[in-house]
Amino acid sequence: MRMARSIIIAFILAAMTWSCEEIYLPELEKMDNLLVVEARFVYGQPGQIVRLYRTVNFNDPMGIYPKVSNAMVRLVDGQGTSMELSSQGEGHYYLGHDLKANENYKLVIKLEGKEYESAYQSVPVVSEIDSVYAVYMEKVVPSGTDQSADELGRLRGFQLNADIGRSEGSVYYRFTHRLIAQYSYNIKKPVNGIPTDITVFAWQSMTPGGIFNIASPPEYSSQAGIVKHPLVFLNRDYTIQKQDTATYFQGWISITSQYAISEATWEFYRDLNRQLSAGDKLFDPMHTQARGNLRCVSDPSEVILGNFEISTMKESRYFLISPGNENFLLKKIPVHYWIPDNGAVESVPPEWWETRSKTYP
């Protein structure tokens, strides 16, 4: 009887406790079905593409962004000449004309009875990188173990930095990088019936992730150029594992694409970086704060995501190799060979293979 009474009292107390709790269901702002415009034009390169699609609700279980293929997209220059982009399907629109230097362009989109347009963008001039240099450093990074999310490790390597002077070119830039890890290993193959060691020259490509790499002169400074801008970090201890075979790292090839952009485009990427690097704090930026240069002419209150960008690109390549300590060799690569993403060849390295003492045609 006492046991039953105790159970009843416990049940009543639990019910009272539960009745005091209120489940908070926050109202999430629905931002589905917004038009997204991806339009990055690069002067001097063929095949400019505009991509159109719609956003979906955050709670959408599929998470598939609907492509917009029923729009009419035009590029209009400063003289009012209009060039229509052809629809390639899947929300892709292709420009078959070349951009002209010293010209201004805007993007115009007609879709479902509405008209959208961008601000005019000029074709920028890209300045030469004055110098690229490496600095040995140790980076503190998450260890990648499951024991503790706070456990940190050290990554040793070389930070490539760049100085860019101000000539007549732009002072606003975006950088992308392709890294190629060269390595070799030996295999045994019969040569004239005799097992012989054959050297295999192999490589693999990778693209660093993270936020957008952008650069500009320091704010509130009379300095016109860009000094000590971090380009990319090269891991000194990078290794490639192959089963039952020792591998020998043969150095990094770093390919940097330097895009000259407008100040407004730089501000757009800066706002995106603030959003991407936010840590769920109270005053984190919202996606609507990363506004591009597109607007709805028919309905100015409509939110459009994306940006129309015109850039000019210049590529530079460097080779870095280290004996495994703080010493290294860094040299500029003057000849830009075509390099496949990944591969391996036996006995003789490919034409583009880099060494300390490589000679060029």
Strand and helix layout:
Elements: H1 2-20, E1 35-43, E2 48-54, E3 72-77, E4 82-84, E5 86-89, E6 92-95, E7 104-111, E8 114-118, E9 121-122, E10 131-142, E11 152-164, E12 173-191, E13 194-206, E14 213-215, E15 226-235, E16 247-260, H2 263-276, E17 294-296, E18 304-321, E19 329-332, E20 342-346
Parallel strand pairs: 1-18
Antiparallel strand pairs: 1-2, 2-6, 3-4, 3-7, 5-6, 7-8, 7-9, 8-17, 10-11, 11-15, 12-13, 12-14, 12-16, 13-20, 16-18, 18-19
Keywords:
about 350 residues, mainly beta, Immunoglobulin-like, six-stranded antiparallel beta sheet, 2 helices, 20 strands, about 10% helix, globular, disordered N terminus
Description:
This protein is mainly beta and 361 residues long. The protein has two domains: 35-123, Sandwich (Immunoglobulin-like), CATH 2.60.40; 131-261 and 313-346, no CATH class. Helix content is 9%, strand content 45%. It has helices spanning 2-20, 263-276, and strands at 35-43, 48-54, 72-77, 82-84, 86-89, 92-95, 104-111, 114-118, 121-122, 131-142, 152-164, 173-191, 194-206, 213-215, 226-235, 247-260, 294-296, 304-321, 329-332, 342-346. The strands form three sheets. Strands 1, 2, 5, 6, 12, 13, 14, 16, 18, 19 and 20 form an eleven-stranded mixed sheet that branches. Strands 3, 4, 7, 8, 9 and 17 form a six-stranded antiparallel sheet that branches. Strand 5 (86-89) and strand 6 (92-95) form a beta hairpin. The chain is globular. The model is unreliable at 1-21 (pLDDT under 50).
